[in-house]
Each structure stands twice: as structure tokens, then as C-alpha cells.
Amino acid sequence: MTKSEVPKFLVSSRYITVTIAAIVIFSAVFLISYEPFSRAMWFSSTNMVSMLFTLLFYVAAVVILILSRYTMYRLQDRYVITRAQYLCWLVCEVIAITILYTFVTYRYFDHSGITITDIGTRALFCVSTILAVPNIMVSFYAAYRSKCEELDAAQYEIRRLGEEYKRLLNENEVERRVSEMMPKAEPKSPHMVRFYDNGGTLRLTIDINALYYLESDNNYINIHYKHNDKVLSYLLRCKTSTVEKSLEGSTMVRCHRSYIVNTKKIRFMGEEHRMHFVTLDDESIKRIPVSKSYYPALLDSLNTIGRGGGVEE
């Protein structure tokens, strides 16, 4: 297991942001609760000197975490991060913050009767707990959400296959009954879009009429589609350029460096503060930004659709 790639949600920008926020909140609660039991605790909200050091230490620890996770986030674009490497990375974060706390305590505060080893051991316990608990909790939640997205996608695929099967049965019935003198044109099959990951494995197949927009996040694509009147999302490890090539000739048009939108779902195009945007036909979906470089191509696509009416500007 340790040689396999770390789950994609663990190195996504959304997960990293939530994890750091959870660590900050949990650390405050933990330190307030742990203070009466510690002999090397100098955190305080009443003493001015201790409060200043508390604030500075908090800022420094958060900066260490942000720089660490940002570096990890950037590296995962170029390299495959394994589970073992990910765990080692987290251990290094614990060690770095532990050393910082031990140094500050030993250098600037009274530590009579307490050795630097004792301070470091206690700090290691506290920092490990503070970082481990939020990481585990958010990891479990992120894993749960990821499985839900995969389940939603699987349910969509099963429903689509069922509808396709029924359609084929109906076509066969029509073909059996129709007279050769009155041939009936076969209905066109829906345009299915297939999404493959970076390894070439087929991960998702969606009717383009159910697609709303794609949102890129470096080497990941967040696919937003509708199923059972609910807008769902599926996170796919794939480059935007690869997906864009597979969508050529379809109604999916790039409107921004990070967005590809289904022009058939656009109901309004507007401009605010010199920035263009589009809104889709589902109110639960946020505005999609339109950059200047992609605005002409998107406008041409909308004008083509607009000849039949339905798109406002």
C-alpha cells in the first residue's frame, strides 16, 4: 500500500486549505485544555510577553504548514507522491514545529528543573496530537466525499446504461413493426463524453447534455454534471489540455484558463467591473468567469446557438 500513489484528494488545494484551518482551530482548543497539566507551557492570553510569543509562534507554525503544503501541492504536478512519502512529509512537519517550540521555550522562558530533552518530548507529543487529529478527521471526511462522488458517477453510469438498453429495445420493437414501405430514420444516439485519467483508464462517461462545466486545478479536473436533478462533481486526475482535445467539435468551449463550459447550458452573459461572466441554467451553480483571450471564441459559439434563440447578453 505504501508504494501506491497517495489519494488525489489529499493533495488538492481544497483539502489542504480545510486541513490547515482545522489544525488552527483544534490547536487552540487543545492548548487551552492541556495548559493545566504542562510544566513547559508558556502559552497565555493574559501575560503580555507570553501572549506576544504565543501569537508569533502561532504565525510561524502556520507559515511552516502553509509553505510545506504549498510545496507538496506544487510537487504533485511533476512527481507521483506515494503514501510513504506523504507520511514522511507529515512527520517532517511535526519535527520542524517541535524544534521551533523547543528552541523558543529553552531560549526565552524559565525552564528550571526541566531538561531540553523533556521539553522536546512534551512538545513532540503536543505537536503530534495537534497535527494528527485534524489530519485524520479531515482525511476520513475527504475520503468519504471522494467515495460519494465515485458512487454518484457509478449510479449515473448505471442509469445511463439502463436508459440506453431501453432505447435499444424500443428501437428493435419499432424496427420489427414498421413497414418496409415507410422506413423510419433511426434516432441519433446522444453524444457521450468519455473521461480518461492520466493513466489512460476510463473513469467516467457522461451524456454531454448532462455536462455543465469543467474546472481545472493543475493536474486535476473537477467535472460538474447533473444527475437526478442534482448537480454533482467528480474529481479526475487529468490535464486540461487532454480533456480539451477530446471535446473538440462539441458544445464544451473553454472560456477561461480554468474553466470549460457547456454553451448549451448558458442562459446569460454579462459584464461586471470590466470582467465578463456567464450564468448557467441552474441557479445553484456559481458564475463562471470569462477571460478576454477566450471571450471572442465563446461569443462566436453563443452567436451560433443564439440564432435559434435562448441566450441573453
Q: How would you describe this structure in keywords?
A:
313 residues; alpha+beta; OB fold (Dihydrolipoamide Acetyltransferase, E2P); 2 domains; five-stranded antiparallel beta sheet; three-stranded antiparallel beta sheet; 6 helices; elongated
Describe this structure in words.
It is a single chain. By secondary structure, the protein is of the alpha+beta class. The protein folds into 2 domains: 8-148, no CATH class; 192-306, LytTr DNA-binding domain (OB fold (Dihydrolipoamide Acetyltransferase, E2P)). The chain has helices spanning 13-34, 48-75, 83-108, 116-177, 240-246, 295-306, and strands spanning 192-196, 202-207, 211-217, 220-227, 230-237, 252-256, 259-262, 266-272, 275-280, 288-290. β4 and β5 (230-237) form a beta hairpin.
Total discrete domains? 2
- Extended strand count: 10
Rounded to the nearest angstrom, the radius of gyration is 27 Å
Span of the ends, CA to CA: 53 Å
Which series of helices and strands comes N to C? HHHHEEEEEHEEEEEH
Helix content: 40-55%
Quaternary state of this entry equals: single chain
Unreliable stretches (pLDDT < 50, length at least 5) are: 179-189
Q: Whole-number average pLDDT? A: 81
Sequence of strands across the biggest β-sheet = 5-4-3-7-6
Q: Could you describe the largest sheet, including whether it forms a barrel? A: 5 strands, antiparallel
**Total DSSP helices:** 6
What does the overall shape look like? elongated
Percent of residues in beta strands: 15-25%
Q: Pairing-aware structural class of the strands and helices?
A: alpha+beta
